[in-house]
Design a protein that fits this description.
By secondary structure, the protein is an alpha+beta fold. The chain is built from 2 helices and 5 strands; from the N terminus they run E-E-H-E-H-E-E. It has helices at about 20-30, 60-70; strands at about 5, 10-15, 45-50, 80, 95. The model has no long low-confidence stretch (mean pLDDT about 95).
């Protein structure tokens, strides 16, 4: 069983297993999604989850802090740091825009 992850900017879709990180998914797919520090410190990889948030891990304290500090975005509840995202549940669809 898998969850389908779609990167709408790149017209890419991948079926992934539980535990897959978005960073691994993006690198495997050859997406143009930018990463900076890759550790949830810089805010370079802010993405918008268009659907399927319930299939992803919850925000951690570091992610909340960095998202609140990123001045270049109009923060919405469905925005996340791609480097902190992990698929946790299967049989779903996650649509992501960066």
């Amino acid at each position: 069983m898998t969850t389908r992850v779609e990167l709408v900017n790149d017209f890419l879709a991948l079926n992934v297993g539980a535990g897959s990180t978005l960073q691994d998914i993006v690198e495997r797919a050859g997406s143009g999604l930018p990463f900076g520090c890759r550790d949830g410190e810089c805010g370079t990889c802010v993405v918008e989850i268009l659907s399927g948030m319930e299939f992803l891990n919850a925000k951690n304290a570091k992610e909340e802090k960095v998202l609140a500090a990123v001045e270049a975005i109009d923060l919405k509840p469905n925005m996340r740091l791609a480097c902190q995202l992990k698929v946790e549940k299967l049989n779903g669809l996650v649509r992501i825009k960066y």
